[in-house]
Specification:
alpha+beta; 9-stranded mixed β-sheet; 6-stranded mixed β-sheet; 33 strands; about 25% helix; about 30% strand
Amino acid sequence: MHRWSRLFIPTLREAPADAEVASHKFLVRSGYIRQLGAGIYSYLFLGQRSINKITAIVREEMDRIGQEFLLPTIHPRELWEESGRWTGMGQNMFRLQDRKGAWLCLGMTHEEVMTDIARKELRSYKQLPQIWYQIQTKFRDEPRPKAGLLRVRQFIMKDSYSFDLDEAGLDRSYIKHDQAYRAIFTRCGLSFVAVEADSGAMGGSQSQEFMVYTDAGEDLIVSCPKCDYAANLDKATSRLEPVPELAPTGDGKPELVHTPGKAAIADVAEFFQISPAQDIKTVAYMAEVRKGKEATWEPVVAFLRGDHSVNETKLAGLVKTAELRPMQAEELEKYFGGPAGYLGPIGLGVSNHLHDEGVNVVIDESLQARENMVAGANKLDYHFRNVTPGRDFGWTVAADIRNAVEGEGCPVCGSPLKIGKAVEVGHIFKLGNRYTESMGSRVLDPNGKEVTPIMGCYGIGIERILTASIEQSNDANGFWLPRAIAPFDVVVTITNITDQKLLTAGQEIAASLEAAGFDVLLDDRDERAGVKFKDADLIGIPYRVNVGKKAAEGKVELVTRATASSEDVEVAEVAEQLARKIQSSEHGL
């Protein structure tokens, strides 16, 4: 048993001024964490106990499907250059030099290191499949650390990697991780949803995120209340209602119209008395494109409906770039010959294929088969009407590059979609052979032919499980954690330790609960009962036993933090009643 009087639990009455989300406020106030620098935190006694319990659950489930490694956090530059990510990761990567001038980095993730082991050690299909995992500190030079442990520069991740002979094997490894993740998050008491996701810098053919809905989240999840469809906004699609086409004017060909001062979509729509959906929006970018070891900037122009917005993650993935930035004035003049606010598709030198000579023109697929739309004329104070995609301008590629909007139709069943904020706690990827191919990993197949193994990558944010749980379960007085990840199962609060009978009763109850298998914190501090109750409500322990005046009658108060409810129980039945409450809670009764 742990005695509160001997522990370091520095609770605070007020949250730090910069704390915006509940988890940040309560992790600091409850003494779980303390900030060392921007995005850098120390885990104190209670915080580390919860982290250890989460880690134990993750390790137990992962041991069912894989083998645990521990890899270096400092990586040589050459390894990341082989995969092409030394520059691709940009400023998010911490880089440093050793005393000899050699460049190194702090590991953000470990695909390269795992692949290096695989290429040196795996020689035959008989050694496959392999699933290797670690629970390791990762580093990211986050430009805007905030929200406590939700956006940091140092964090703990469970990352695992699968190596298989073929796609069928990868499917099996992917399913194993999906099942393991569902078991982990369920055991940790999270209410989560699995959604389709973008693979981002990891690459690969398929990925899925495990999300927890909370207003503290920075991800947006598109979901259907009527069916199982759910996707990250960067992956989500939707059904669109048909848009009435405008009647052509004159000979039906593009007609130049003077539109003085009408640069914004809303102003253009009002001027022509049309819906924004009948206008073509132009969004002009420069994209960093790598050709071998060289990086160049190429023009990428997106066209979509005036009432839609570009999803830059979709667009960047389509044109295979690590970075998009808006075109500057001189670049607009070079490629359009016109100013911002009046840009349009007619007259652009369109590239036939991505990254060929010319402008990479991407239109959203919702513009295909449209007619008689309004668009900028690449001339100050002028627009065209009667613009028909395909007849009046071409494109390099057509694809879904827009953000889905709440209320649009579900792509599966057509019901109105909902959009909510969420925190990502896990992500699984089918990487394919991106890393094994670029880094030269080969094995012999059953026919003696040399083939490239296929990979999967799977991550869980350990601290994010803790923060997501707090975001799910808090009130004005503090938070409560599921027993599985709480620092203690129950706190036994002696209301007055100067009363020897209460002190003795409290110690005996704590000892009996510990003997029954519970993780017990005994609050034996010489403090007022109100102070103790406030602290107990604050620090996330799911149950409390108050040892007060009724102890003389052989009774104590058993408090359930999640429901703020209490009941009197016989001292001899405390362990039995607590076990019953826990069982009911874990089974949703």
